[in-house]
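Figure-free illustration: sequence to structure, shown twice.
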Amino acid sequence: MTENTPPEPKRDSCLVRGVRFLVRLALALIIGIVIGVGVYYGISWMVGEYVRISQEQASRITALEMQQTQMEQSFSVQLADLQAQVDTLEIQGDTHKEAIASLEHRLTEQDDLLTEQQAAVEAQQSVQDTVQDMQTQIDALYTDLETIRNDFSSIEDQVTVLSSTIDVYSQSLSIADAWMASSETQLTAMQQQIVFLQAMELLTRARFNLVQGNTSLAGSDIAAARALLTEQQSDLLDFQAAYVDEILTALDHALESLPASPLTAADKLENAWHLLFNGLPAEPMTAESPGSGEAPAETPTATPSP
C-alpha cells in the first residue's frame, strides 16, 4: 500500500513575479518623486521668506539711518542759530554796560561840578541860572541812566529766556541720543536674526543633503553654520552665548556622527534648527535648557523684532 505524498505548492510564473516587481518599482518611484517635490517646494518657500525678511530689514535700517541724519542736521542748525543769538545779545549787553559806565562817570563828574557850583553860589549869586541848567542836565542824565538800566534788564530777561530754550533743546538732544541708542539696539537684534536665518538655511540645506545621501556637502553646510554662530558669539551677553553654545554642541555632535550615522546627525540638526527657530533669549532662563532633548515645549522669550 503506497503512502500519499502531499502536493507540491503552486509556484507563480516568471511573468507574475516580473509584474509584481514592476508594480513595486513604480510605487517606490512615485513615493520618491512626491517626497522630492515636497522637499523642493518647502526649501523654495523658506528661501523666499528669507529674502523677503532680509529686504524688509535692509529698508528699515536705511530709513532709520536717514531719520537719524536729518535729526542731527536739524539740531545742529538750531543750536548754531541759538548760539549766534546769544553771542549777539552778549555783545549788546557789553555795549550797554560800557554806556552805563560812561554815564555813571559823567554823572560823577556832573556831581563834582555841581558841588563846585554850589560852593561858588555862596560867593556868586550871578551863576544861579548856570547851576539850574546843570541840575537839569543831571536830571536828564539820571533819566537816560534809568532808561539804559531798564533796557539792560530787558536784555537780561531775553538772555534768561534763551538759556531756557537752550536747556529745552539740550533735553531734546538727550531724547534723540536715547532714540539713537534704541535704534542701534534694534539694528543689533536684526543682525542677530539675520545670522540665525542664515544658519537655519544652511542647516535646512544640510538636512536635504543628508536625505540625498551627500554627507560631504551636509558636513560643509554644518561647518559653515557653526562658523557663523561662532563669529556672532563674541558680541552676545553671557547667557545668550551659553544658549549659542548649546546649538554649537548639537552641531559638533552632528559633525562627529558623519558619515557613519546620518540619522543621528539628522536628529542633532533637528534640535539645533529648533533652537535657532526659537531665537536668542532676552533674559537669563531659570528653567533647564532645552538643547539636549526633544524640541522645547515652550518657546523661550526671543529677541524682539523691531
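We now fold a second protein in the same way, so the two outputs can be compared directly.
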Amino acid sequence: MIQKMYKPAHHTTFAQAFRLIVVVSFYLFSLLSYKPLVGQDIIGLEVVRTLEHPGNYSVGKMDSYFDSTHQLIAYGIEDGSGVRDTLVIYDFGLDSILAKIPGHGLLSGVNFIDATELLCVMKDTLWRVTGIGDTITREVLATGMRAMRLSNDMARLAFVLYNLGLQYVGMAAYDTATGILQTIDTIGSSEASIDEYILIAFSPADDYFAINGGYDHPFAEVIDVASGTLHKVNVTGIESTYSPGFFYQRGRLKMAVGGGYYNGAIVVIDIASLTQESIMPVFQHYMYALTFDQSGRYLACGGYDAFLGLYEVADTLFTEIQSYEVGTLKSLHFTSDNQYLLSGYQAAAGSRLDIQLIIREASAVKAVESLPLILYPNPTTGTIYMKGVSDALVKVYDSAGQLLLTQYETEDGIDVRHLPSGYYIVMAQNGFGKHIGRFVKE
C-alpha cells in the first residue's frame, strides 16, 4: 500500500483535506498503476534472437527489408579503428548470415533498395551492393561521402560530402532501376563534426532531412528539400547532438535530437518555426540512438546509460511505455514491417545485435506491477531520499504524467528545488521491479 503523503494547508478543514487526499490518491494511483492502451498498441519488447560478435567494438548502423517473403537485416560491425568495419547481411527468416563484406573503412550509412540490392557508405565511398542471396557484387557510385540516407520514396539520396578540407551537405537524384546517381547537387557547407558518427534522417513526407551536429556541437542542420536551403538550428540544454528523427504531434511536424555528454535529454524542434520547443530529460549521458517506428507514434532511444526507453509520442507529451536495462546502446532501428526493434550494442555490453519482437495489445487497460517506495522527508521543499531502494533509475512525473526529471539513485538524494509546488510521482526501477511513491511540494 502506497502511503498518502498530504499535509493540509492551515485554512483547509480536516474533512476537506481527507476528501482531497482520496481524490488525488485515486487519480495518481490510476495514472501510474494502469496504462490506457486505446490507440497505444505497443506494450513492450521481447528479445527473440541475439547475434553476437565478440572481439569487436560495437554493432553500428543498420537497415532492414521485410516483406511477405523476405526478412533481411544489414548492419555494421565496428572494430573501433574506423578502417576495418564489416558489413553483415543477415536473413532473419533462415537464421543465416548471407554475407560479410570486410575491410572498407567506417560504415557510415546503409539502405536497402529491395531484397537483392542495397547502398552503403564505407571509407568515404558510396557502394552499390547487388546480388544479395546469390552472388554478391559491388560497384563504386561516388567518393568523398561521409554519410548518406535514401529518402522514403527512394528517389533522393541525402549525403555529407568531404572534399579538400571542406564539408558539404547535398542531394542526388537516384534511379533505383539502373542504380545511377543522376544528379549531384551541393546545398551548403556543413558544420557537423566529421569525426563523429554522423546520422541523417528524412521526414515522413521527404520534404526535410536533418543531420546531427555531433560531439560538442549543440545544433542540428535541417534541410528544406523543395527550396534546397540549409538551416542551422541551435539547441539549449544539451551540448552535443546525436540521432535526429522526425515525427508528428497533433498534425505538426517536429524533430527530436538526442543529446550528450552530461545530459542525454531529447530536444524537440518545431519544424515550421525551426525553433526549440521543449526538452525531455530522458537520460543522463550520451544518447547515441533514437528512432521512430513506421507509424511515427512510438520512439525508442538509448545510449551510454545502458537503458532502452520506449515512448508513445502522439500527444504533446512523451508517455513512457517501458524502459529496459540492456547495456550501452549504439544503434536502434524498427524493421520495415514494424514488427521488430533491432538494437546494436557496444563492447561493454557485448558487441551484439538483439532482435526484439514488438508486443502489442489492440485495446485494453494493462496493469503495471509496482512496489511501494518510501520517500522522506515529505512534504518537501528541497531534497528527498528513498528508503530501501538502491541501484535504481529514478524518474519524477507531475500529476499529469509528464516526465520532469531522470537520474540514477544516489546517496545525495533527489534534488527537487527547481520543481514548482504541487503533487509529484516518483518511479524507481531496478532489477526487482518498479517502486512508486509520491510527494507534495509545498
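Summary for the second example: Helices lie at 14-33.
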